[in-house]
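Q: Here's a chain of 83 amino acids. Please give me its 3D structure as tokens.
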Amino acid sequence: MTVDKLKQYVALFGGWLSAVLLFLGTINIKFEWFNVASIDAFVVVLGASVPFVIAGYGVWKNTYLVKKQARKQEEALKRQGLK
């Protein structure tokens, strides 16, 4: 899954939240905290977190400090002169 595709999902979720807000407004249910500004802020935070999560996953998978098996692999690479 690409970053662009994830951003599209975030936008889709924001649109869904907007539809829920409009639906609740039509049946006269109102929450002070659930408005267009809060939905926009949530979508921005969610959209900004997508690259952060992808970068975090890349660091997690490519570091030798996190897992015991990765440390063993690093030792094997050093023994073979590959690191």
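Q: Can you summarize the key feature?
A: The chain has a mean pLDDT of 86.
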